[in-house]
Amino acid sequence: MKKKFTISFFVLMLCGGVLVSTLIAQTTQSSEELLKLAQDNTAFFDTDFSGRYTVVQDKPGEGKSLTEAIMYRRDKTNQWTILVTGPANEKGKGYLQSAGSIWFYDPSDKRFTFTSAKDKFQNTNANNSDFAPQYYYRDYSIESAERVKLGNYNCVLFDLVAKVESVDYPRLKLWVTENDGLVRKKEDYSLSGQLLRSTAVPSYQVVEYAGKKYSVPVSMLIMDNLRGKRIGGKIQYERTQISISNVSFSKVDDIVYTKPYLEMMGD
User: Fold this and answer.
1) Where are the beta strands (DSSP E) in the chain?
2) pTM score, two decimals?
3) Nearest to 98 by CA among 232, 249, 256, 250
4) DSSP label at 116?
5) Is the peptide bond before 87 cis (omega within 30 degrees of 0)?
6) What is the C-alpha to C-alpha distance for residues 198 and 176, in angstroms, rounded to an integer?
7) What is the per-residue pLDDT across 184-211, written as a single tens digit (0 to 9) for each?
8) pLDDT tens for residues 50-62?
């Protein structure tokens, strides 16, 4: 009797171990699938994209500044163009990513200068890379994933560690809604774990084109945890609000993704 009990207990424990292993594998797989969906939602590989961007930079103690621009993207060929349309003293400046390089064009001296994905856009808290697809699944490993509440949203909170050196930040925390795979909040960290930036995406607009639905942020709020000023005994950090409107997924002329286009628009 004792022997039968021991064998039964062993079989139960073995089956339990298999069940736990299966649950862990399923959880890991579902987390990876959700992270990949979050990545895919930031890219539009089957169509061009264009939209009007309003960028408001808030520097504590210095006031706010406004930049208006038109963004064009062709993600399948890794090309994008940003044409600055305002204010008047900035109008005609532009950015171009093509053939793996990013160029900045200044019409005042009619010159292109090399810049990078990590550089700041128009001296704001936004990086040039913030306007392009985000490769969370490709470039990062999942260190942990847990279900959490973010306001009214049911999210999975990912703790991500970079697999490659070419990323802007070696560590990320990412809040992704479970039902649609949309990023609602992101925190950028240094390798030592210092918080560098926080980005909130409170809402998305759904745009239908050619029978497909695409989700585009209505706005994004970026807070730079390294750039701030003490006012009234309290640190206030710089913030950048990016609003996106007039979204279109119609094809854009090839010339838009070239240097001659920026030169022509800067005249």
Assistant:
1) 49-59, 63-74, 79-86, 94-98, 101-106, 111-115, 140-150, 153-162, 171-177, 183-189, 195-200, 204-209, 212-217, 219-231, 234-248
2) 0.86
3) 256
4) -
5) yes
6) 14
7) 999 999 999 999 999 999 999 999 999 9
8) 999 999 999 999 9
